[in-house]
Design goal:
The chain is α/β, with parallel strands linked by helices and about 270 residues long. The protein contains eleven helices and seven strands. Strands 3-2-1-4-5-6-7 form a seven-stranded parallel β-sheet, with helices on both faces. Helix 2 (about 20-30) crosses helix 9 and helix 10 (about 240-250) packs across helix 11 (about 255-260). It is globular, with a radius of gyration of 18 Å.
Length: about 270
């Protein structure tokens, strides 16, 4: 048995946004490595299918919970059930739920802006606070927040989405420092575009992934990187390398960064 599989064997892993895309692949990889997967998302039929496959892959148990993280009351109810079912034992929380929309800042409606912040930021914070309290009581745990390269270097037509991911990174960085004394790890994941159904809503004309070509990430590869870091001290995961290099240049040479953001990295 590999070291990663031994580390996760029998551990409980709660994943939001687990009914499709990256969250679904994280659930499968965690199950392959022997974890008890707790899959949470809005789509009940898809969740049940994910739950069944996780049981098959792990040879053990898996659970599913219908939960819209953007609805605070619904999320609170789901968390109460999860914590009760697990007797408070959640070893890893993966905050993956989120959505985006490629639209100019001046054209983005208040409704979309508010919904995006409820799902991408406020829901993530609420769930993290509740689960982290249980982890703190046990003196162990790992919180993994899926942000984005957009939270490091914003590009045109992503102002609202990028701002939510900047918020996730800020929250994660402070949380890491606050929870370190209690034996709880915090990892931030900053992926570039991943080939998932995220873009069915985000990209209205359906051409974004085709334009990016070689920079588009395989969701299984990203999921494996995330699961392999579970219950370790890894601070962050940054993919793909080219976009991470661009983000670092942005900090060191802001005018050059602006040029790259509106030319090479702007494919919307």
């Amino acid at each position: 048995m590999s070291q990663a599989k031994a580390r996760l064997k029998g551990k409980t892993v709660l994943i939001t946004g687990a009914s499709g895309g990256l969250g679904e692949q994280i659930a499968y990889e965690a199950a392959r490595q022997g974890a008890v997967v707790l899959a949470a998302a809005r789509r009940k039929d898809r969740l049940q299918a994910v739950q069944a496959k996780c049981r098959e892959l792990s040879g053990g148990d898996a659970f599913s919970y219908v939960c819209d993280v953007g609805d605070r009351m619904q999320a609170a109810g789901a968390l109460k059930r999860i914590i009760g079912d697990m007797d408070g034992k959640i070893d890893v929380l993966v905050n993956n739920a989120g959505f985006g929309l490629f639209e100019a800042a001046l054209d983005t409606s208040p409704h979309v802006t508010e919904e995006m912040f409820r799902v991408n930021v406020l829901g993530l914070i609420h769930i993290t606070q509740r689960v982290a309290l249980e982890m703190k009581g046990r003196g162990t745990g790992h919180i993994i927040n899926v942000a984005s390269q957009a939270g490091k270097m914003a590009t045109p037509k992503s102002a609202v989405y990028a701002s939510t991911k900047f918020a996730v990174r800020g929250f994660s960085n402070a949380l890491r420092l606050e929870l370190q004394p209690f034996g709880i790890y915090v990892t931030t994941v900053n992926p570039g575009p991943i080939e998932t159904d995220f873009f069915q809503r985000a990209d209205q004309d359906g051409s974004y992934l085709a334009r990016l070509r070689h920079w588009v990430l395989d969701p299984q590869r990203v999921a494996k990187a995330i699961v392999d870091c579970m219950l370790t001290r890894q601070r962050d995961i940054n993919l793909p390398p080219m976009m991470e290099a661009g983000a670092r240049l942005y900090v060191l040479f802001p005018h050059l960064g602006d040029f790259l953001a509106r030319t090479i990295f702007d494919r919307k």
